[in-house]
Here is the input.
Amino acid sequence: MTKVSNYPSVYAESLADPGEFWLQAAECLDWITPPRTGFVQRADGMADWFPGGTLNVCDNAVDRHVRAGNGTRTALIYDSAMTGIVREFSYQDVQEQVARTAGMIAALGVGKGDRVLIYMPMVPEAVFAMLACARLGAVHSVVFGGFAAAELAKRIDDAEPALVMSASCGLEPGRIIAYKPLLDEALRLAGHKVPHSIILQRPQLQAALQPGRDRDWNAALAAAAAAPCVPLTSTDPLYILYTSGTTGIPKGVVHDSGGYAVALAWSIPNIYGVQTGEVFWAASDIGWAVGHSYIVYAPLIAGCTSVLYEGKPVGTPDAGAFWRVIRQHKVDVFFTAPTAIRAIKREDQEGTFIKRDGIGQLRALFLAGERADPDTVAWAQQKLGIPVIDHWWQTELGWPALATCLGLGAKETRFGSAGMAVPGYRFAVLDEAHQDIPLGEQGDIVIKLPLPPGTLTTLWRRDAHFHASYLTAHPGCYTTGDAGLIDADGFVHVMGRIDDIINVAGHRLSTGGIEQIIAAHPDVAECAVVGAADALKGMVPVGLIVLKANVTRAPDLICREVVERVRTELGPVAAFKSVAVTAQLPKTRSGKILRATIRSLADGQSPSLPATIEEPRALDAVRTALSGLTKPGD
Ligand code: COA
Ligand code: AMP
Here is the structure.
């Protein structure tokens, strides 16, 4: 029997009385003091969700399932394709681990409101550390392992953590990444002095510990007593997650406790169509928003089994890695980035691994993190024979805002669109004068205030920056930073960013931030970085540099130094490998670099000559510089 879609009525209900709609959704959680009010609107138009309600998010993700008699149900499956280790943790196991980890942290004097920076590979201890912070009301800030020391230092200075939790190493195909030297360097660079660190020694590499500051994780854990959950108000911060802004300074996106927990609990059955006890796998990293929400918090709050995968889509050991995990752990619904599917498709165009071994009981594949190109979606749909659903969100939003809500019975998808507005979100596409643009035409994608629960509350200690970044461009709206259109049937098509953020293999980077690093090279007079189309990663950064007049060193050598600088200061995650020297950069008469024109040239197109260009010959200079440049995906 085909299920009739409840999506239109639920969507209408969510906007008619948002407070009541989300108060009802909040009933699925265990509150210490249940909220009586859905939200109060702040002077800036944003909402404080569930004021007066008190709860603990860790209690809702872990302890309450044990209390309800489900302690033996599997909470977490750790599958490391890097080491071959598979470990299962029941809710009872997770409770024990998390309570002791919280005790270990509390023994250092860390408590409610203190920040804890987590710089860890994809190991279960990283998940336990996040939940342990939530247990104590400490605010965690997880930093992705692919960021370099200087980036880590920026986050340390902004969050001012009382404790850093890290590991001796991460594992990448063919190499061990020593995390501790990166951490030591970050701690040295940072102005804020972190008093304590706890280091997990992995068997692949032992880290040297600094007496007085560094503690051995396992020794400290063995000595720790279990700590209970601390009551928090709904609006207390749960975590800060740094993401790229338009400058080199990362934005510390703050998520609250109650609103976030309610939205995530709601999303699992209603968006993903996943029920308590089923297996949900998000192949991402805990350092990203997807990892926070859909490896850790949402599946556990919903009482599902979550898979924590340490590996890659290809090469660990082959393009069948994902399907092996899906079969072995009986994954019901799977979530990854389009780039991962492109990587698989590139190595296994025929879908041989899928044909040979099958995909078990998998019933849907969700994609997000970057634009899902129709070729990739069509390939996955054809080879897997299940719905492939593109959906859209941002670190700031914390959970999907555009999707095809499978759990509400919605089915229709449209190539090139990330779906329709999720209940709670009211989208519009506006022009520069803040007017609605006719359906089908492109403009700024905004979301009308107030935002639903689960979304950011501010930027850490930067309220003014928060307002300037998100609430000022279009009054009464949250500006997403994306451009796109809404078609006649309500499908939203996200076309790209309106700022200088680029998306590299589902990772968000600021070209402005990369330019700042390059510009500091002593031989560079000026530079431009653009995101060029890449068959695997969606986009890769490509740099053009103009050398200072008196420079006599070989341009090739300078280019290599520039690449190394970006890798050392920003991190390997930037995938910055293409840079060329040009005699000049195309600029407008007012001196603005014509980045869109450079981007077209980098993509091999022939852009028409911009009317505002100061020196048309600059285009030839860039064309020459770009010829012969190879991109990592080539
Ligand atoms: N710690 C240290 N280094 C890391 C790292 C980590 N946690 N994660 C990645 N890196 C390094 C990689 O080793 C690589 O280094 P290299 O330049 O020496 O090769 C570099 O950072 C870029 O990594 P990555 O983006 O993973 O590219 P890749 O070429 O190794 O693999 C894909 C390409 C498509 C397979 C990979 O990008 C992928 O799996 N993407 C999925 C994206 C995703 O899950 N996004 C989350 C948002 S939903
Ligand atoms: P992040 O905060 O790292 O998740 O990046 C969010 C940005 O990634 C969005 O603002 C978009 O530019 C892009 N993005 C994420 N998902 C999609 C999608 N499904 N389609 C198009 N762009 C996407």
